[in-house]
Design brief:
- The protein is an alpha/beta fold and 528 residues long.
- The protein is built from 18 helices and 19 strands.
- It has helices spanning 4-13, 37-54, 86-97, 103-113, 134-147, 160-171, 181-197, 217-229, 252-258, 299-317, 333-342, 354-361, 382-389, 396-411, 419-433, 437-441, 477-486, 513-527; strands at residues 29-32, 57-62, 71-77, 123-128, 151-157, 208-212, 234-238, 273-276, 283-288, 294-297, 323-328, 347-350, 366-370, 376-380, 449-454, 463-465, 470-473, 492-497, 504-509.
- The protein has a five-stranded mixed sheet with strand order 1-3-2-4-5, sandwiched between helices. Strands 7-6-8-9-10 form a five-stranded mixed sheet, with helices on both faces. A four-stranded mixed sheet has the order 12-11-13-14, sandwiched between helices.
- A hairpin with a 6-residue loop joins strand 8 and strand 9 (283-288).
- The chain is globular.
- The structure holds 2-acetamido-2-deoxy-6-O-phosphono-alpha-D-glucopyranose and zinc ion.
- 2-acetamido-2-deoxy-6-O-phosphono-alpha-D-glucopyranose is lined by residues 26-27, 352-354, 371, 373, 375, 498-501, 505.
- Residues 26-27, 352-354, 371, 373, 375, 498-501, 505 line the site of 2-acetamido-2-deoxy-6-O-phosphono-alpha-D-glucopyranose (16G).
Length: 528
């Protein structure tokens, strides 16, 4: 059973500041690092319980992604590399908010409700980003695991998707890959180099790419990895953490939300560039054209490139496997139209947050999902893997396509959206198709759009339906939005309460930037 004495004793060393209330949101817990020690200890306890219940390895990642360096956060990773199950998110919130004297009772309640066999072993793997606070906080997680009699493995510095990968590998008996950094680097690099070999233009053009690493973990890991794939791609790292501050004026979130290049990177015209976020689970591309104009290539265009390539491969193999693309309400209207009308790929919309997209994408033989902000990956069903295994008997051309598909599957991180893996997928596809960054960008033109945040007394008065595209409450709000949208061409707008900040978010798009700005402003006034 639980050693309640030890729990009380250790919990006091990680005491909760009384009155502090936090919520396990779409990104786990996130706030100023100095408020998180008790949360980390308790998430160690919870991870151990979850591991006992599932009889599997569970992961804990200490990071606050694109948030400022002073912040930190923690997220649990379920056995298949996925986000924590919803009922356990609630447990996480209860446990984190319990005052010191109630903590034990809450812990016992959770293990009873979830029928956890406390005799069962627990194994938890822990990773952390490069924030100054992360090392100590991850130590508190491990304290929590230990107090419940669990074992842990500390991976130390990892990108978030690398931790998801480790968890997935450990729970699938090594079929997915080796649960080490070396295993991750080798699996991805081997697939990448094989793909690049098949590119007809690989020899004559030495491919190079500029990467803004947000002064984060992505820089360290890309440095460790680059010699594995340097035959196929040379990367030039910027914002590698040697000078600047994490996420400050750089990184994928900065580039996407300000629609401008990061500081600290010199960009010549038509050079291919990309940015990772602070924990390397998001990526966006961009370039400057000959006139010096900045062009952003976001998650929607990444999904388009990837899904059209995969669809072509499926057609070459000639199999009846289905492919679907999953987006959120933030997806640019042009991307949805292009996917549906030009590429004839079915598109689905889910609520914001990776777990919703991931879940939907699992319904297809090949499910490609991306948020516009650059978080995404592709998932492949066992039916696809079977087809590849049987491809030995196929004719030469089909066999080649099947081989390519096999390598692409190995190159994706199916446990989570992964900036490093996505970068290599994109670079391989561009090389194989002989596409320049401008040609990729020219697939369709984004509709001008605007995002705003609105401070309100209580953001919970706004509720939505239809994958957040329509407001249900307060009464009259959706009608007001409809009337405003009618005033503009090619227009669309929605509002939703943020899952990570105490604000309401407004999105609008229209035929011109001026119209999109106006519409967003008018909608934000309607929210009050
Ligand atoms: C979290 C989500 C991200 C989403 C964002 C929306 C995960 C791993 N991350 O960062 O996917 O885009 O929240 O934030 O699910 P918001 O609710 O504040 O707009
Ligand atoms: Zn991130």
């Amino acid at each position: 059973d639980m050693d309640l004495g030890a729990i009380t004793k250790y919990s006091a060393l990680h005491a909760k500041p009384s009155g502090l209330v936090l919520q396990y949101g779409t990104a786990g817990f996130r706030t100023k690092a100095e408020h998180l020690d008790h949360v980390m200890f308790r998430m160690g306890l919870l991870a151990a319980l979850r591991s006992k219940q599932t009889k599997s390895t569970v992961g804990v990642m200490v990071t606050a992604s694109h948030n400022p360096e002073e912040d930190n956060g923690v997220k649990l990773v379920d056995p298949l590399g996925e986000m924590l199950a919803p009922s356990w998110e609630e447990h996480a919130t209860c446990l984190a908010n319990a005052e010191e004297q109630d903590m034990q009772r809450v812990l016992i309640d959770i293990s009873e409700k979830e029928a956890v066999n406390l005799q069962q072993d627990a194994f938890v793997v822990v990773g952390r980003d490069t924030r100054p606070s992360s090392e100590k906080l991850s130590q508190s997680v491990m304290d929590g695991v230990t107090v419940l009699g669990g074992q842990f493995h500390d991976y130390g510095l990892l990108t978030t998707p690398q931790l998801h990968y480790m968890v997935y590998c450990r729970n699938t008996g090594g079929r997915y890959g080796k649960a080490t950094l070396e295993g991750y680097y080798q699996k991805l690099s081997k697939a990448f180099v094989e793909l690049i070999k098949q590119a007809s233009c690989s020899g004559d053009e030495y491919r190079s790419l500029k990467v803004d690493c947000a002064n984060g973990i992505g820089a360290l890991k890309l440095r460790e990895m680059e010699h594995y794939f340097s035959q196929g791609l040379s990367v030039q790292l910027f914002n590698d953490g040697s000078k600047g501050k994490l996420n400050h004026l750089c990184g994928a979130d900065f580039v996407k939300s300000h629609q401008k290049p990061p500081q600290g990177m010199e960009i010549k015209s038509n050079e291919r560039c990309c940015s990772f976020d602070g924990d390397a689970d998001r990526i966006v591309y961009y370039y400057h054209d000959a006139d010096g104009h900045f062009h952003l290539i976001d998650g929607d265009k990444i999904a388009t490139l990837i899904s059209s390539f995969l669809k072509e491969l499926l057609m070459e193999i000639g199999e009846n496997l289905n492919i679907g693309v999953v987006q959120t309400a933030y997806a640019n209207g042009s991307s949805t139209r292009y996917l549906e009308e030009v590429m004839k790929v079915p598109v689905y919309c889910t609520k914001t947050g990776v777990k919703h997209l991931h879940h939907k994408a699992q319904e297809f033989d090949i499910g490609v999902y991306f948020e516009a902000n650059g978080h995404g990956t592709a998932l492949f069903s066992t039916a696809v893997e079977m087809k590849i295994k049987q491809s030995e008997q196929l004719e030469e051309k089909k066999r080649k396509a099947a081989k390519m598909l096999e390598n692409i599957i190995d190159l994706f991180n199916q446990a989570a959206g992964d900036a490093i893996s996505d970068m290599l997928v994109i670079e391989a596809i561009l090389a194989l198709k002989g596409l320049t960054v401008q040609q990729w960008d020219a697939l369709y033109t984004d509709l001008p759009n605007r995002q705003l945040k609105v401070q309100v007394a209580d953001r919970r008065v706004i509720s939505t339906t239809n994958a957040e595209r329509q407001a249900v409450t307060p009464p009259g709000l959706q009608e007001a939005i409809n009337d405003l949208v009618k005033k503009y061409k090619l227009s669309r707008a929605f509002v939703r309460p943020s899952g990570t900040e105490d604000v309401v978010r407004v999105y609008a798009e229209a035929d011109s930037q001026e119209s999109a700005d106006h519409l967003a402003h008018e909608v934000s006034l309607a929210v009050f």
